[in-house]
Every structure is written in structure tokens, then in C-alpha cells.
Amino acid sequence: MSEAAFRQVTIVGLGLLGGSIGRAVQAHLPGVTVVGFDADAAVRAKARELGLAHTVAEKAAEAAQGSDLVILCVPVGAMGDAARALAPGLSQDAVISDVGSSKGSVARALAEALPGHHVIPAHPVAGTERSGPEAGFSSLFHNRWCIVTPPADADAAQVARLVAFWEALGARVETMEPDHHDLVLAVTSHLPHLIAYTIVGTASDLEEVTQSEVIKYSAGGFRDFTRIAASDPTMWRDVFLSNRDAVLEMLQRFTEDLTELQKAIRKGDGDTLFDHFARTRAIRRGIIEMGQDDARPDFGRSDHGGSK
Amino acid sequence: MSEAAFRQVTIVGLGLLGGSIGRAVQAHLPGVTVVGFDADAAVRAKARELGLAHTVAEKAAEAAQGSDLVILCVPVGAMGDAARALAPGLSQDAVISDVGSSKGSVARALAEALPGHHVIPAHPVAGTERSGPEAGFSSLFHNRWCIVTPPADADAAQVARLVAFWEALGARVETMEPDHHDLVLAVTSHLPHLIAYTIVGTASDLEEVTQSEVIKYSAGGFRDFTRIAASDPTMWRDVFLSNRDAVLEMLQRFTEDLTELQKAIRKGDGDTLFDHFARTRAIRRGIIEMGQDDARPDFGRSDHGGSK
Questions:
Q1: B7 with B147, same domain?
Q2: Does some domain include residue A101?
């Protein structure tokens, strides 16, 4: 792939994802120049200090100049505006991509903002609960899947360049229709976040149980949800607004299943509960076998202070 | 506390919790003799091989002989029968305790099974998703809370002995009314498990999204839920049956909150979503400050293969 490889990459938005791409390109693709931009001056200053890019430009259009790959790493609701701000500096043959968590709406926003350009949306399924320029790290994409959703008329050679780029950062790449992406991610990412945000909110609002009790006894399971519910609120607001139909569809099915278990609890139907609880272990085994989670108990958390 | 300390401890049920107590007593209280028992002969054999106790008895009543502390580590629905099986071997001044995740029903079952004995229920809020005799480790209780729920007429000196025992294993101890325990744990443990079991089931049943896709893209959040949903089905069936009212109450509130967010998504009300998502970070900070979770991003998971 080396003759087709990108020579200069522009990253717009230098938070967890953008910062991680900047670090990863420098770590894995030493010949490639990284230009960064962020709409927030404080983030630009921090990005320069951390060396997230070789250069951090003061304006979006300036950041795009001379790059053959531009990756938008902003909340999905901000993609259209971010793309329009780049347009004056974009070369005609540059590939425009992104890292947004929903793909149908982003594909439409980018195609509308940049007609005639090579727009190839993508979504690396990777992240942590942290956000901001200091949160990124170069190995974030190692062994994680990146889903590329090229439009029907995409240039196959440009798609192949983008796939090779993500593979160089350590990712495994899959190509998919945007609508199917949005349905898959609604269940593997968006619904889990919605539920985690909900239960953490429910626990905060109780009167009979104090916040201090919720915190103290969180190791019974609740603390796991608080990690996800600490994710960036702007990013997640935009995800739910942009992938509304698929999220509502998955939420409906979740609610039906929860109602069934609720009924089993109310009726004292232990067999239904047992049967349901016994069949959910296989998925975790599959996730661990596929290298998508830490095989050690409790995610290998170190807070017990201890070995066996 | 040394003159009041227990001299011999019997552990009934040698799974994750019982096995961890056996290891922890040997690690932290070297003068104390540990006697183990499990109703399953294969577990007894494995416990002997692993050295979870100094002696593993063949019968429950035999295991109780000469012990001044007996801890029941069986599913909460099995507590009454397990206590009755011990009775013939119990000395009159032994303290009987347990590690069950619900306390009102266990307190009633033990008081009924062992009238006239010192019954002092307890619940160490600690565990992993693993189960069985090989799952335990001696540091499981380090810096975790253990909730002791003595009956109103409990002997204060015996309660103090039990508190000192848990502190010696590294736990922090709190005393509480059983009903309040059950309400607190309904929100910090039981509801999170119910929700995790539900969503993993929902994801398994989809037709439009394959199980392989759910597994591949699980790093978007879903994988966190699969850990909890891999917990022991018998244990959790019993928890929901025994703490029914508190779980249904908390589930009702969760459902109301989820319906509110669902409505905000349907209406495209970004402000409501943002406000909700922005206020859930504080609880995670509290949990980390109290040492109840790993402060590193992503629980410090090692599966990215990497440092910064």
C-alpha cells in the first residue's frame, strides 16, 4: 500500500479520538505529517504542548491545506459546520472521513457540506470514559474494530487507502452500509450508554438511599455503570439525536424484555429468571475469545490491591 | 480484640465468597483454624486440593463442631436448609453469620432455622463475575465494605467480634437495619444486575444484528454489561426472589427515568439529554475518591495492549 498511502493527515477536533489518532499516526506512520485543528483555543494550546500533531493550525481551512486525508473528530451534530469551515482549504482529491458514532446522518451532513469530494465516513469502535486533549493514547485502536461506511459511488482505491490507514494504526476494519452500522451500534453502544446514564441518574435522585451510600456500596455492580455514564455529554446528546430511530427501536425491545423479567420477579417465577440468567454467559466468552475484553475477572481491576 | 477473637471458623459453601474467606483467614489470621464444607463432593475435593481450608469436612454438622464462628456462603434461597443441616454440630455460643446479598429474608430464615443461637447476618459487598472454588482470592475484601445487620436483640460483644473479624480480612464495616440494606443494595447491585442480564439477553435475540456483530463491536459499551451478566445464575435468581419488593420499587423508578429520556430522544430535545448526561459524572468521581473503583480510564483494562 505504500505508494497509495496518505502523506499528510489533518485532524479536526483534538479530544480523546482526535488526540489518539494524532499520537497513533506519529507512533505507527513515521513518514506522515499530522496537522491538527480545534475550534477551542485552549485545546489548540494544550495539543501543541502535548505534541498531538506536528503542527496545530489556527484556522480550519488552513489546517486542510495540502492534506490528502482529513478526519473530523467532532461531535456528530457539529460535523456539517466543521466540514464547511474546512472547504476553502481542501484539495479536490483529499479523502474526507470522520470518527462519529452514528453514520447515516453524518454521511448526509458531509455529502451536503462537501459536494464533489471523496467523503468516506468511518467509526473506530474504541474509546474510554475520558475526554479532552489529554485523554488520548496511541494504542487506543489496537485490536479494536473500525467500521468504514463508503457511499455506493465511492472510489474503491480511496476506500482501500482509508482501510490501510486504520489497519496501520492497529485496527481491524469492516465495511458496512451506514444504516446497518447504526442498527448494530444502537445495541452495542448507544443503548448501553442510555441505560447507564439512566440508572446513575435514578440512583442520584433517591431520597431513602443517600448519595454517600450509593458510592460506598457501588462495588456490588453499580460502579461499572458509572464509568460509561461519565462519558462526554455533548458527544452523547448528539449520538441520540442523530441515531434516533434505531435507538428507539432497540429501547423498545429492551423494555419488553425487562417487563418480562419484572413479571417473573413479581410472580416469584424462579425458573424463568434462572433460564434467562443462564444463557447470557456465552456472549461474554465470545467477546473474550475475540480479544474484545480483558479475560481477567473484574476487568483485571487493580483496586483489590491484590493477587491470589 | 485479640482475647475475643474467633479461634475456629467454619465456612459452608466453598464458591467464590466462601473460598475467598478461607484464603483470606489463612492469609490474615494465621492463628485461626478454618474448617470448610460444601454440599457438592466435587467442590469439596477441589477445595482440599486448593487448600481453601485447613480441613474440609464430609458433613455439615461435623464441620460446625468446635467452631465459634460459622459463615454460610450459599445462595440466599438455600440458607435455611444449610443452617438446619449444621444445627446438630453447633455449639450454643457460636456466632452464625452469612454473606448473602439480601438480608431481610436471610435474617428470618436463619432465626427460624436456629432459634436461640447468635445469628448475626452480614454482607461483604465484594465479588467478581466468576464462581466456584477456583474463583476466590485472599484480597477480595480489601477496602470493600461489609454490611453487618444484627437483630435488635443481638449480643453487642458478639457483634463486635464479627466486625473485628471482617476488619481483619481488610474490609471496612458498617452496621445497618436489614430492610435498609435491602433498599440500598437493590439500587447499587440488584437493579444493575437485572438490567445487565436484560440487555445481554435483548442483544442475543436480535435478528437484524448477528451475535457475531454484537461480539465484534462490543467495545462501544456493551462488553461492560456482559461481565455482570456472566455472574452465577442460581445466586441471582435467589437474590431477586428474596428482595422482590425493593427491587420492584427501584425498577419502577428506573423505568420512569428511562421513559423520560426516551421521550426526549423522540422529541429531539437535546437540552434535556445534555442536562441529564452532564450530572452523572460526579458520582463516578465520588466512587474513585472513596477507593471503590480503579481510577485509570477503562478500569485500567489491559486489552489495548498499551501504555500512552
A1: yes
A2: yes
Torsion of CA B195, A283, A265, A211, to 10 degrees: -30
pLDDT digits (tens, 9 = 90+) for A116-168: 999 999 999 999 999 999 999 999 999 999 999 999 999 999 999 999 999 99
- Tell me which residue has cell 448475626: B120
* Torsion on CA atoms A122, A125, A130, A134, rounded to nearest 10: -50
Q: How many domains, in total, are found in chain B? A: 2
Q: Tens of pLDDT along A220-243? A: 899 999 999 999 999 999 999 999
Last residue in a domain, options B134, B159, B176 = B176
In a domain, A278, yes or no: no
Q: Tell me, yes or no, whether B301 lies in a domain.
A: no
Q: Please give the model's pTM, rounded to 2 decimal places.
A: 0.92
Residues 6+ apart with CB under 8 A from B42: none
- Whether residue B244 lies within 8 A of chain A, CB to CB, comes out as yes
The string of pLDDT tens digits covering residues B165-206 is 999 999 999 999 999 999 999 999 999 999 999 999 999 999
Min distance A59 CA to chain B CA atoms (Å): 28
- Answer whether B142 sits within 8 Å of A214, measured CB to CB: no
A251–chain B Cβ distance below 8 A for any pair:
yes
A296 belongs to a structural domain: no
B132 contact residues in A (CB cutoff 8 A):
none
- The C-alpha atoms of residue A215 and residue B292 are separated, in whole angstroms, by 8
Q: Which residue of B196, B214, B240 is in closest CB contact with A187?
A: B214
Q: Which three cell numbers stand for residue B256?
A: 420512569
Query: Chain A, 34-73: which have a CB under 8 Å from a chain B CB?
Result: none
Q: A83: domain CATH number?
A: 3.40.50.720
CB contact under 8 A, A251 and B270: no
State the DSSP code for A89: G
**ipTM of the complex model:** 0.92
Q: Note down the domain range covering A36.
A: 2-176
Of B136, B159, B176, the position where a domain reaches its end is B176
Nearest CB partner across the interface for B188, out of A137, A222, A268: A222
